[in-house]
UniProtKB/TrEMBL annotation:
Pfam families: RNA_pol_Rpb2_6, RNA_pol_Rpb2_7. SUPFAM superfamilies: beta and beta-prime subunits of DNA dependent RNA-polymerase (SSF64484). This is DNA-directed RNA polymerase. Belongs to the RNA polymerase beta chain family. It comes from Capsicum annuum.
Amino acid sequence: MPWKIDCYELYLVFRYLLQKNLKLPIGGRGWVIDVRWIQKRGGSSYNPEMIHVYISQKREIKVGDKVAGRHGNKGIISKILPKQDMPYLQDGRSVDMVFNPLGVPSRMNVEQIFECSLGLAGSLLDRHYRIAPFDERYEQEASRKLVFSELYEAIFEPEYPGKSRIFDGRTGNPFEQPVIIGKPYILKLIHQVDDKIHGRSSGHYALVTQQPLRGRAKQGGQRVGEMNYALVTQQIGSGVLQEMLTYKSDHIRSRQEVLGTTIIGGTIPNPEDAPESFRLLVRELRSLALELNHFLVSEKNFQINRKEA
């Protein structure tokens, strides 16, 4: 007896498989450390087995990566120096990271300084501290008194209490002002510069707005916001801005003319009509029973010609 296959059921299975597959992100690399075959129990008959592939990736920290502490003191790495060029203490030990002090008053999180100083005192005294939140219910300024007492026992210098003299690793000269040195808890965040770099030459466009898709995973374009608009207008010029808002965005006719000019040759004509985003705005206003007409003034005889959106 021949085996009959229902085409619709086969279509459902293939559609499920096409929708549920998971690809490695663009630019992803690493070592496969584990592969697991998981089979679902019960449910619909269109739930096949799942295969989980675990990939391990090692990345060295670089300029542009984001780090943060436990008190909202986040920032990006602006420069990486050799160990011999980093500032060093009086005993010759070099520091690992240098933070901008302007990050303290702007965020008003003084506890990062307490953690930094208390971590250094704990390493020198070989002690561990556990500070609970809202410990002022036991005593007024309990955290501050604990930190100050431990600092007084570990590294008390009457001339500049809580700070240390450090030297420039490039010249060997001491810095003009004493600096707070400590051991805070710093984490490397998932926001890394390797995942932020993205470029687009050509790709898909949205059906409604006719603008490039959003997102790095979809090979989308980069959004030009208000700050970017002001920067391009001030520093680069209006020609680049017009190119971003027409040829590279939602001006359908200009995109076609760029393609034809690239193949045949010649100069790219300037766009004369409105982009698709303006037409979309006009259509939305028409759905609200509001008519919007725009006119084009000719450069030759200054005649007003009506342009339909």
